[in-house]
């Protein structure tokens, strides 16, 4: 039987006492592409249980930052700490196991699989039946787990709001529902930290409202959310903390009211909106 | 003796480099592993052979003719087997090139027969002695032509506008398009340049081994892949240096190991590189699209 | 049972069955997004190893088959593991190398006959044991598709990076698919050796790997019946149309290209396999 690998990380979490509050810590994080620093020596702390937004003009390094936190990209220098543990060398799939989940700016769902299967496959790191139960008729273990995966996936789809679409082919879903599907996939990994890359991009106002309330419901369950957004209304409305980027550097950080009045931010970004 | 092997190896390797450059160019610009490139090389040898035998032209004519012939062949392949294929299916273009390989190999087999054909002498062989090493005019010609073509390519890629457009497309086709590059034209150009180089190399290798068979393309393909890996995928400089290295290594291995291992040698090299340094000696191109 | 079927048909059925197993061996890693051109090499190891076990050591056929297949799988994973760890076309290239190295190895390996080949293998393959194994394999693939591992493979095939972000361990899954594919090809090799009774390394060269790929690509690369259909079609068609025989390769090459242009997923895909789809088409035609 395949055993789910947990790289010395337990559900209880290993946290050093001084970092008890900050779930995610980026220290001097830098990413250089061909001579240009997309992310330049950035320090960010995300506190557990908060709704933390990252804003900034296009090309200011926000997605690159998220890609480094999720493990898609390797930093050029700097470190990433999650629950007090240095995860800079941890693989992306292991980070999912540790509790970091994400959505993509350009929606990456598995188009040929059904909506339900898309969410079921995201339960991979929380389940364990493997080759053994495939080969040998150990019906109880595998059947029970399959039923459980299926049930939990349907539950998550309902939570997100597209439960009725579960048998449709993922690629056939309209844009807004595909975004919701991605969020369902991310939630299926039972994350502690959820990274959303422009969750409402390309949506109409009513869809945006749906996503806004979904994000609130997600934080209500205790999940920390770190998201990138351009829609200022939403950012100001839901976030508890905002970090502002420009040209790969952090130029401001604080509560929404502080950010709104910060002259540097206004000059760099809000003024153009 | 060792030095002699080195020289022989460099001469052979320089021709290999020409083919490897083609593989790596096509991979760089199109993100495609062009399986049939070996067959283009093989047909270049046959074109040259026919020109020398049939048209009674000398070596320069043969090489020019073969290069033109393979360039046209490259265009045809692009038109018929690359462009019509939708790129969403990642492996589809590659599999199509495998189809082309099969067709070209069998057609060559049917037209020219599978017996090795010797390359008639087009250059009067004179032997020179440089210290402990002996070379003849044939080797000088092969090395000279290879180096000339490689230099020409290097100038083209680094100094001309088209060459820069090719490099831009290799790095990021979407951005290149935004900058006004006609990506389709560049793709055609890439096929033409790569195929022409392979055509020339076909004649050179045919002359070096004095044997032209329909299966020399398949043999060359393995070496081409090994050189690409050795030098770094998409890395032209790597292909040039890698070709020389493989040529030398191959000659040395024949000298010191049994010759029945020669064919597998290149593959052994591939496996070793992947174990120790997958990005190649000079680094691979990472496609951002 | 055997008496009812002509020897010619029996031969076709056996070759078709062996090819089906070979096709499935390519299909498994392919359904996880990997192109392996090493199936010929795997087949070779399975063939020689099982032949040695039955011929030199009197091991019963079933154990020899499995033993050869296990060896196949282990060697394959051992050699190709460096490429399994990296994303990209590296696996394809290393499998080409692996195939050649195995071919040259057996060409020079005196213990199994070297250039002269390995002869005198007992004809232990028959319709019963071959199709029993094929049936078991089909059941395996059917179950795999619906299982946790099968979903993970399909996800990797669809979008590797997204799959990794959803917590799927890429290297482990790819190693599984590749190793299992090697095992299955080893089985095909064992059956092959004990059918043709004489094998040389030339039986397992690049063309064999190419065949395993063509069965799947042409027959259908998205559903498990595709490889099987492709294997039988490519086995039977050249036999039925004599005039194709001498143009067999060109014909297959052209088929490949046309297929990639028009229908890259092969003849059978997920829709065609579901009888409901046919029912809907029929209803629509009737409604007109």
Q: Top keywords for this entry?
A:
heterotrimer; B: 289 residues; mainly alpha; two-stranded antiparallel sheet; 2 strands; C: 288 residues; 14 helices; 75% helix
Question: Gist?
Answer:
In chain B, 73% of the residues lie in helices and 3% in strands. With 289 residues, chain B is mainly α.
What's the main sheet of chain A like? Answer: 6 strands, mixed
Strand content of chain C: under 5%
Uncertain parts of chain C = none
Structural class of chain C: mainly alpha
Kindly state the number of beta strands of chain C.
0
Q: What number of structural domains do the residues of chain A give?
A: 2
Radius of gyration of chain A: 19 Å
Taking all Cα atoms into account, the compactness measure Rg of chain C is 19 Å
Helical stretch tally of chain C: 14
CATH class term of the largest domain in chain A: Alpha Beta
Relative helix content of chain C: over 70%
Multimerization status: heterotrimer
- In order across it, which strands form the biggest sheet of chain A? 6-7-8-3-9-10
Domain module tally of chain C: 1
Q: Classify the beta-strand content of chain A into a percent band.
A: 15-25%
The two chains with the largest interface, and their residue counts, are: B-C, 41 and 37 residues
The average pLDDT value of chain A, as a whole number, equals: 86
The geometry of chain A reads as globular
Largest sheet entry of chain C: none
